[in-house]
Design brief:
Distance between the termini: 14 Å
Radius of gyration: 17 Å
Strand content: under 5%
Largest sheet: none
Oligomer: single chain
Helix content: over 70%
Structural class: mainly alpha
Mean pLDDT: 91
Number of strands: 0
Length: about 160
C-alpha cells in the first residue's frame, strides 16, 4: 500500500465530494431535500408543493442508488491506485476512504457549512437557525452512512480481489 497515494486520493475525493454536494445545493437546495431534517422539510412544505422526500421514495432511492454506484466505481479506482493486494487490503482502503468522506460530510459540511451558509437554506426556512444546527441529526445520519458504506465497500473489495488481484 502506498500511503502517499492514499492521502492524495483522500484530498482529491474530498474536493470532488464537496463540489458534488455544494454546487447543486447552492443552485437548488430542494435537490437534496431528503437530507434536510424533518422539521425543516415540514416548514418548507407549508408554502411549497410537496415532493418525494422520504428515504424510500423512488426519487430519493434513485439518487442514492446512483451515488452508491459511482462510489463503487471510485472505490475500485482508489484501491487499485493505492496498491491494494487482496480482499482485506482493498476493503480496508475503500472503507477507510468511505469513513473519511462520511465524517468530513458530517463534521465539516453538515455541522459547519450547512448550518451557517444561508444560500443552502430552503426557501421559507431561512429563519430556522436552530433547526439548521442540529448536530445530533447529522451525527445519526453519518452513522447510517457508515453502515450503508459497508455494502459498496464489501462488493468493491470482492470485485477487486476477483478481477484485479
Amino acid at each position: 500500500m502506498n500511503w502517499t497515494i492514499i492521502i492524495i486520493e483522500a484530498f482529491v475525493l474530498t474536493i470532488a465530494f464537496t463540489a458534488m454536494i455544494m454546487i447543486p445545493l447552492v443552485k437548488n437546495p430542494v435537490w437534496w431535500i431528503a437530507d434536510y431534517p424533518e422539521d425543516i422539510q415540514e416548514e418548507y412544505f407549508k408554502t411549497h408543493e410537496r415532493i418525494p422526500a422520504k428515504f424510500f421514495s423512488p426519487v430519493v432511492l434513485m439518487k442514492k442508488g446512483m451515488a452508491i454506484v459511482i462510489a463503487l466505481v471510485l472505490l475500485l479506482v482508489v484501491v487499485k491506485l493505492a496498491g491494494a493486494y487482496d480482499f482485506w487490503s482493498a476493503f480496508g482502503i475503500g472503507y477507510g476512504m468511505w469513513l473519511f468522506i462520511d465524517w468530513y460530510d458530517c463534521f465539516v459540511l453538515d455541522w459547519v457549512l450547512f448550518a451557517n451558509i444561508k444560500a443552502v437554506r430552503l426557501p421559507g426556512t431561512e429563519h430556522m437557525d436552530r433547526a439548521y444546527h442540529q448536530k445530533m441529526y447529522h451525527f445519526v445520519q453519518s452513522c447510517w452512512g457508515m453502515l450503508i458504506g459497508l455494502i459498496p465497500c464489501l462488493i468493491g473489495a470482492g470485485l477487486y480481489a476477483w478481477l484485479l488481484c
